Amino acid sequence: MDRRFRGLDSRLIHAGIETRLLGAVTPPIFQSVTFERSDETTRYIRLSNTPTHVALHRKLAEIEGGEAALTTASGMAAITSTLLTLLTAGDRVLAQRRLYGGTREFLAEDCPTWGIGCDWIDATDASAWSAALRPTTRLVYVEAMTNPLLEVADLRSIVAFARDNGLVSVIDSTFATPVNLRPLELGFDLAIHSCTKYLNGHDDIAAGAVIGRAALIERIAARLARLGGILDPHAAFLLDRGLATLGVRVRHQNASGLEIARFLADHPTISHVSYPGLESHPHHARARELFDGFGGVVSFELADDRSAERFMAALALLTAAPSLGGVHSLVMRPAAVWGTRLSPEERARLGITDGLVRLSIGLETRSDIVADLTQALGA
Angle of helix 51-64 relative to helix 233-243, nearest 10 degrees? Predict the structure, then answer.
């Protein structure tokens, strides 16, 4: 891409394309397992280096400001491949306490079977981190905004702490997207995305990505080739197509998120709303300083825990389903989806109550979303 054009929306459309095959404006899908060897490079699908993969990796690196990028078959494949590359038996990781359930379970249940330990930290309180540090700590892992309560970690302090203590800093930036946050610009070594969510944005593929320093990405790519969690070229094509509209989609979701969060905060049936764009959010000032927008996920507590199921059943436009970040507005109850995997004490510690609802705002007309919420809350 011509380096004169640095706007994010221009990069989302044009980055990654070096030559146009037969003049095709949209890059074709190279749905081939293997390629004729014409130089010193072996192209093979399991190595994630088909022309479709290479162009997508260039684009992801360009929009995040990283040296290199790698795609995977899911967000969890990106997370697990990264951690299993950077950590070995005897190592420990400092991890934010309120992580996505799949990541938390991997660290708490799977990593110990390989001799990898985890120490949990409050990523909003820098004064407590040194006490959790051990001689074998190698990595610190946080999220841009936590799921489902949208806690905002002290990201600048995390970077400084990692640098001062020789740790690799890794952030899951799925909720923020490169539209609202570029973690590598803050100094993080690696940024991870579940591309299933905002980056693809159409609820039709699973994909993941890890972006950052080339030396680290090269190591993760080698491990991924052995683990096998690669992204199919057709899914890579769909992800590239979804990225072209990421800017306009996320800005729309930012605006809808703030408007709907304010509506919910004023509703008499709701006791609390978690959204970093609200002045009532405990990390609002930090979010304003870090983010260019606050995203399309809003979590709220119904005043009567017993009414959550009735609310969900009464929705007409919004769909009760997991996932987030796509064109469809989706609603889920974390207690119903994750509650069976957590003890009552763990649920209480993580703030997952029976009345908690997570709303992922899509691209529907805002007034229609508000109307559906209004009638369902009235039920």
Answer: 30
- Reported as type and span, the H/E element at residue 330 is strand 330-332
Global pTM?
A: 0.94
Cα separations (Å) of 55 from 42, 70, 359, 367?
16, 11, 33, 39
β-bridge pairing 356-360 and 297-302? antiparallel
The CA distance from 136 to 72, in Å, is: 28
Burial degree of 188 (CB within 10 A; 0-12, 13-18, 19+): buried
Note the residue count of the chain: 379
* Domains in the chain, CATH or no CATH each: 8-243 (3.40.640.10), 247-378 (3.90.1150.10)
- 340: tokens are 């069976």
Neighbours of 32 (CB within 10 A): 14
Enter the DSSP assignment of 112: G
Burial of 215 (C-beta count, 10 Å sphere; 0-12/13-18/19+): exposed
- Residues tagged active-site: 46, 100, 172, 197
Which residue type, as a one-letter code, is found at position 227?
L
pLDDT digits (tens), the chain, 379 positions:
555 567 888 888 888 777 666 677 778 888 878 887 777 778 888 888 898 999 999 999 999 999 999 999 999 999 999 999 999 999 999 999 999 999 999 999 999 999 999 999 999 999 999 999 999 999 999 999 999 999 999 999 999 999 999 999 999 999 999 999 999 999 999 999 999 999 999 999 999 999 999 999 999 999 999 999 999 999 999 999 999 999 999 999 999 999 999 999 999 999 999 999 999 999 999 999 999 999 999 999 999 878 899 999 999 999 999 999 999 999 999 988 876 677 777 777 777 888 999 999 999 999 999 999 999 999 8
3-state secondary structure 55-90: HHHHHHHHHHCCCEEEEECCHHHHHHHHHHHHCCCC
